[in-house]
Design goal:
Blueprint (H helix, E strand, L loop, with lengths): L14 H16 L6 H7 L36 H13 L9 H11 L6
Helix pairs in contact: 1-3, 3-4
Length: 118
C-alpha cells in the first residue's frame, strides 16, 4: 500500500498521532518480517488477548492513558497491529515516555533496535 486517505472530518487533537499511526501501517505492510506480531503479543501479560480484528471490538478510544499498563490507548488493545501503530505514533509525536510501564518499555525497544535495510 502506498496511498493514505484522510477523512476531512478528523479530530484535530489526534491528527498528528493518526498520521504517524497510519504511516506505521504502510511501513508494517512493506516489512512484515521486521514487526513480528507474535513477539509483540508476548510482551503483554499472559491473560491479555487482542480481538480478532480492529473492527471486531468496541475498543476505539484514542485518549492517551495516564496509567499505561502496557498500552497507550484503549485502541491499542484492539489488535497487535493497532497496538504497534499506537506505540509508533506516540514515539514519533514526542509523547512523554518517562513514566511508562515495563511492558511499554519493551515495546518501545522494538522500534529503537530495528533498522530497515534496502
Amino acid at each position: 500500500m502506498k496511498t493514505l486517505i484522510l477523512d476531512v472530518k478528523f479530530d484535530e487533537s489526534y491528527f498528528e498521532r493518526v498520521i504517524h499511526h497510519e504511516v506505521f501501517h504502510i511501513i508494517n505492510d512493506s516489512y512484515k518480517e521486521i514487526f513480528d506480531q507474535k513477539i509483540w503479543t508476548n510482551f503483554n501479560v499472559e491473560e491479555f488477548k487482542y480481538a480478532k480484528c480492529s473492527t471486531c471490538t468496541d475498543k476505539l478510544g484514542l485518549d492517551t492513558y495516564s496509567n499505561t499498563s502496557g498500552f497507550f490507548t484503549e485502541y491499542s488493545k484492539s489488535t497487535a497491529s493497532e497496538d504497534m501503530a499506537e506505540v509508533f505514533s506516540h514515539l514519533m509525536t514526542g509523547s512523554d515516555l518517562k513514566n511508562i510501564d515495563p511492558i511499554l518499555e519493551q515495546k518501545n525497544t522494538i522500534y529503537k533496535n530495528k533498522p530497515i535495510e534496502n
